[in-house]
Amino acid sequence: xxxxxxxxxxxxxxxxxxxxxxxxxxxxxxxxxxxxxxxxxxxxxxxxxxxxxxxxxxxxxxxxxxxxxxxxxxxxxxxxxxxxxxxxxxxxxxxxxxxxxxxxxxxxxxxxxxxxxxxxxxxxxxxxxxxxxxxxxxxxxxxxxxxxxxxxxxxxxxxxxxxxxxxxxxxxxxxxxxxxxxxxxxxxxxxxxxxxxxxxxxxxxxxxxxxxxxxxxxxxxxxxxxxxxxxxxxxxxxxxxxxxx
Amino acid sequence: xxxxxxxxxxxxxxxxxxxxxxxxxxxxxxxxxxxxxxxxxxxxxxxxxxxxxxxxxxxxxxxxxxxxxxxxxxxxxxxxxxxxxxxxxxxxxxxxxxxxxxxxxxxxxxxxxxxxxxxxxxxxxxxxxxxxxxxxxxxxxxxxxxxxxxxxxxxxxxxxxxxxxxxxxxxxxxxxxxxxxxxxxxxxxxxxxxxxxxxxxxxxxxxxxxxxxxxxxxxxxxxxxxxxxxxxxxxxxxxxxxxxx
DNA sequence: CGAGGGTTTGAAGTGCATCAAATAGTGTGG
DNA sequence: CCACACTATTTGATGCACTTCAAACCCTCG
Lengths: 245, 245
What we know:
Two copies of one chain form a homodimer.
Chain A: H1 2-14, H2 23-31, E1 34-38, E2 43-45, E3 53-59, E4 62-67, E5 73-79, E6 84-85, E7 99-102, E8 106-112, H3 113-122, H4 124-150, H5 153-164, E9 173-176, H6 181-187, H7 192-206, E10 209-211, E11 214-217, H8 220-227, H9 237-240
Antiparallel strand pairs in A: 1-8, 2-7, 3-6, 3-8, 4-5, 4-7, 9-11, 10-11
The first copy, chain A, binds a DNA duplex (30 and 30 nucleotides) through helix 7.
């Protein structure tokens, strides 16, 4: 399957960690890779399950979460193309430390954890890339915490929409929410009811237009003025996120 | 100064990342190390400042924080002996990504960032140790977020005290808060007033005795029953924290 | 002793959660 | 193609935890 190999190679090149990989290394990865296609709702792995492989997303969205004692889900992250997950099992005794589920139909590439671990020890470039990507994830997580504290519900939604937007377009901007409003609400740490009300308030305050999963506005500025004023990193925080030292 | 070299070596061996280091490597580190003693309140470095060195704590407490636009501080972490900080500047364009201040008189060892970076590329063991330690920090951060959501103010204080306690002693237990109550409050994401009231409630509910910065109790159990019931990882969560995948 | 923080207590307000119910969408089988 | 079932979303009403503002108290250190 020459096509499949190429497609996997492209996926790896698109991911932060393997983009710097040399041809020989990538070939080795591809030999041991697998492609998976999961429908919406499919559970990819569960918390505490023995971990043999980690994943890179080709397309679609994946929800990372944990179940609390009373059965409710705590959303850890919702990630998409280019992102890697499950690799942290390497550092937690070989078991996954959260559950993963396809939030929308998802195409994934999986690789053996053992391969990654052995490569790190001998490949300094890879280790640095992995550290770099981990540092960045911590930046993002750190920003999330800050937002959780400093922004109210409406501002968090505004911030979320801003980060979905392609900042290059100057004129009217159209954004589609990538998944259920319920899931967005969970992602932002609020109840669906609060989300609904907060979105209505955001609409009033900033003049954005919401219809179903579609959000329209004339410029990002009206939104960033409202949402980013409470944030320590200013607009756009996507690029400026700070990390725990 | 043979004594000073030894003392630095001990500090490095006590830190998570360098504990596995070989003699030759440690010697190289020690040659380029410096010792600092900072009084309470001293600013060690500030956000966005050019970063040349990173630090390891020998003794005392260090507060990591960021300033928001309106001048209030967002506490990122408060760390003590054995912990490393400032090294993340390596991955954020060579500037520190938060400010650091001595929360109590602190003794620190500092090392050049460049040395760490160059070592990682050639020393696979070190890279793995660093990844491991980063993964663990993310675990802790992840737990903090969960606590923030699931526990109320009193439970968070209880959990904080539990983690200060040495679990080995069976009988009566005495704990000293390591720094200002105001700072503890900030650390736990609440106002000083809320902290005061929540601590009073905790006292009533669990029978712990608080006098100034001293906390006494007969057993940890009464506290863990109250504080850890809301937590997904049970007691003691210190060891069982889960990490973002 | 007295000034200045740290800490506690009181009173009122705010934002979000929760419970409840109505409404809008979406997909299914007849 | 429609009616039904089921879920997502919205809206209303109420409660609670924490915040905020204000003032008193208490340490401790010059």
